[in-house]
Amino acid sequence: MMNNRYGKLASLVYHLDKPVGRSFGDVEYYLERLRGVSGPVLEPAVGTGRMLIPLLQAGLDVSGFDISQEMLDYCQRELELRSLTARLELAGFTDYRVDRPVEAIVVPAGSFQLLDSFEQGLLALRRFHASLKVGGRLLLDLDPVAAIVNVQPGLRTWSAPPHGLITLNATPLEKDYCAQLTREMHRYELWEHGVLLETQLEQFSLRWWGVQEMRMALEQVGFTEISVSGGYQYGKTPQDTDGIISFEAYKRQD
């Protein structure tokens, strides 16, 4: 059984639910924040290319990695459909490689919260800092705590061309307030004409971070000039009603 790895059916659901270019306000936000960047950009947990491809189309030099080969396969196909190229690596937050220091690292849509412990998060932040060139920036999104704690799992469905149906049944497993962690069991099923063809089980975990906790973690690994914005409005103080919290931090010295 996999944990946060997005296997075959989970990747197909992601591809159907969050197609390339679909924006939650983040595509426009990152394009604006990266305006003027000419050096390499890295996107961890790149998925199927929802963010990577619009950044490439805007002229940025972007590469990405993901722990799911199935997600990377979708991303590669989407690149080829648009005659685009990008370096993609099968890797996780703490074991990816870069062949040159990057100017920016972007982690949109709360992907960082797939790391299910504080220690893993801190290790990833250290890797990010080491991967940036001096003067480079980390741009990272977090879901608000309430968006994770108050989620109500249930049944969702997607049409799967040419004539199939995918269902996702999410069952809560635990909510660990001390570890700041929620766990669910995701059961994906592929149906065709009412016949069950395939089932996939994945354990799905998310860790929530407090705003000041993340700020202190960034400072601990060496980041400076840390700004926090709410609702994809740069410089806006985050409020409880904001759907996302964005951090931006600089590396000023090795």
UniProtKB/TrEMBL annotation:
**Keywords, alphabetical:** Methyltransferase, Transferase
Residue span, Methyltransferase domain = 41-136
Origin: domain of life: Bacteria
- Pfam families per UniProt: Methyltransf_25
Q: Name one GO biological process term.
A: methylation
Q: Does the keyword ATP-binding apply?
A: no
Q: Which GO terms describe its molecular function?
A: methyltransferase activity
Q: What is this protein called?
A: Class I SAM-dependent methyltransferase
High-level lineage: Bacteria, Pseudomonadati, Pseudomonadota, Betaproteobacteria, Burkholderiales
